[in-house]
Amino acid sequence: MTSPVTPNPAAATPASPSAAVENTPRVGTARVKRGMAEMLKGGVIMDVVTADQARIAENAGAVAVMALERVPADIRAHGGIARMSDPDMVDSIVSAVSIPVMAKARIGHFVEARVLEAIGVDYVDESEVLTPADEAHHIDKWAFTVPFVCGATDLGEALRRLSEGAAMIRSKGEAGTGNVVEATRHMRAIRSSIRALTRMEEQELYAAAKELRAPIELVREVASLGKLPVVLFTAGGIATPADAAMMMQLGAEGVFVGSGIFKSGDPAKRAAAIVAAVTHHDSPDVVAKVSRGLGEAMVGLNVADLPADQRYATRGW
Amino acid sequence: MAQPVIGVLALQGDVREHLEMLAGLGVTATAVRSEQQLGGVDALVIPGGESTTMWRLAGTFGLLDPLRERVRAGMPAYGSCAGMILLADRLHDAAAGQQTIGGIDVTVRRNAFGRQVDSFEADLDFPALADGAPIHAVFIRAPWVEDVGAGVEVLARVPAAPAAGEEGGPAAGRIVAVRQGSLLATSFHPELSGDPRVHALFLDIVTESVEGKG
To answer: Does the CB of B135 have a partner CB in chain A at under 8 Å?
Structure first.
């Protein structure tokens, strides 16, 4: 069952006349879920695999951490089935930091998502970096109190995830490569499709919805807002302050950095530098200053050399 | 005198929502990321976001002391959520070493209402707002005010019994909006719910402060 497409929460009328009903506090509303992502804007969310890394991320100014057992680069190296992290491991990170903690569930694995919700994570990433658990269905995210972020390679995919209840979107990029080219492609694809919608006449939106394989209501909403009705971050392959600043200039509202930090020479310094570069993404002077003396960046992979079955971005339907 | 210039601290967080809220009230607000930009504003909104991130970035970019000096010198400021934390004199459950701008004589507890699954919306009585009608408030991993000094006015509290027929939990009756002089703070996010009255109250405070200086 899908819930109706919710209107832009920020545009909703503030107080309803039925004050008696409204007096009951409500959790898990679209506004609370999407609002959480609004608070992360202009920030960096960092992959961490231990409580120590989580503290380094918090000290460097991360707005949130993503708790997982292996960063994407190691998932690639390790092979096999990548699953939700051990709840003990997620717990240890939840108790180590005061900033929000996210964790990944496999695409379609609604029980992993329930487990993460029960542990108390603040956001669930239904992630292509893990091995998909369902080849046709994503999780019905409306059914949860915890909000979800989902990856997208283009606008149609983003809108399908929204129709399932995602409260935040990240462009997928190609995780664990240290190569920003796919993130660039996905950000440009999403933004240019949004721009195209804003120039269309009402009748043209129906055909656009068909092409995007997305609900017309959402297509109409994006056409009138000129942006997604939720926060849009970038992920996948970001390794340097300049990568992060470029993504912000391409229209990202914040960035996820996975392997790029803790697979580099000086994680604490690189993490702080990426945080600063995101805030001052339009200042080349600041990006130059923070880019100095960071030590070695992670070793990158050429995405074109990856066999088709090792491309995570193609996972998701 | 010309219309006062309102800044929104734009290190991180929901800056755009505050800018839009102020624009809706006919005020052109400007983003503040540097000491120079801070020098050009008469009043400041500190948005929602991650208070530890804002504090660190303010330190990195040499803004923390200038912010403290401006607030001490009487610059009107309004903080929502993380902004409330930054305007508090004292914190509970702060991150290691976390400092604030300060200015409001209160102790604020970070993430007091719980984690994201506990984030909620509810109507609150907030008599200081225009027309006195309740405000629909959105709380996201929100802080609350644990205790207030003598000069602090309590503007709103969570209702005593949060849900009909339920006993009030630990959140019942907690202070979620305060004012001290020309400083205003809310635990919740009026910028997300579309009700402009808290921002309008802040603009009144700014006007009073500017006229007071004559």
So the answer is: yes
Total number of residues shown for chain A: 317
Do the beta carbons of residue A254 and residue A231 sit within 8 Å? Answer: yes
Q: Please report the ipTM that was assigned to this predicted complex.
A: 0.95
Q: CA A240 to CA A121: how far, in whole Å?
A: 27
Residues of chain A in contact with residue B56, where contact means CB-CB under 8 angstroms, are 59-61, 272, 275
Q: Which domains does chain B have, with CATH numbers?
A: 5-213 (3.40.50.880)
B70/A contact by beta carbon, under 8 A? no
- Which of A26, A39, A274 should be substituted to probe chain B, the one whose Cβ sees the most B Cβ atoms within 10 Å? A39
CA A226 from chain centre, in angstroms, equals 20
Spans of chain A below 70 pLDDT: 1-23
Q: Is the pLDDT of residue B160 over 90?
A: no
Say what the pLDDT of residue B24 is: 96
* Contact at CB, A122 and B116, closer than 8 angstroms: yes
Q: Which residues of B touch A9 (CB under 8 A)?
A: 192
Residue pair A8/A225 in contact by the 8 Å Cβ criterion: yes
pTM of the model: 0.93
Residues from chain B contacting residue A277 (CB–CB below 8 Å)? none
pLDDT tens, A218-254? 999 999 999 999 999 999 999 999 999 999 999 999 9
Q: Average of pLDDT values for B15-44? A: 96
Buried b (16+ CB within 10 A) or exposed e, B98-107: bebbbbbbbe
Q: Which residues of A are catalytic?
A: 104
Per-residue H/E/C for chain A: CCCCCCCCHHHCCCCCCCHHHHCCCEECCHHHHHHHHHCCCCCEEEEECCHHHHHHHHHHCCCEEEECCCCHHHHHHHCCCCCCCCHHHHHHHHHHCCCCEEEEEECCCHHHHHHHHHHCCCEEEEECCCCCCCCCCCCCHHHCCCCEEEEECCHHHHHHHHHCCCCEEEECCCCCCCCCHHHHHHHHHHHHHHHHHHCCCHHHHHHHHHHHCCCHHHHHHHHHHCCCCCEEEECCCCCCHHHHHHHHHCCCCCEEECHHHHCCCCHHHHHHHHHHHHHCCCCHHHHHHHHCCCCCCCCCCCHHHCCHHHCHHHCCC
Rounded to whole angstroms, how far apart are CA atoms B177 and A128? 42
Q: Using the beta-carbon criterion (under 8 Å), do B95 and A40 form an inter-chain contact?
A: no
Average pLDDT over residues B139-145: 97
Name the pLDDT band for B161 (thresholds 50, 70, 90): low
Across the interface, do B13 and A41 touch by the CB < 8 Å criterion? yes
Tell me the average pLDDT of chain B: 94
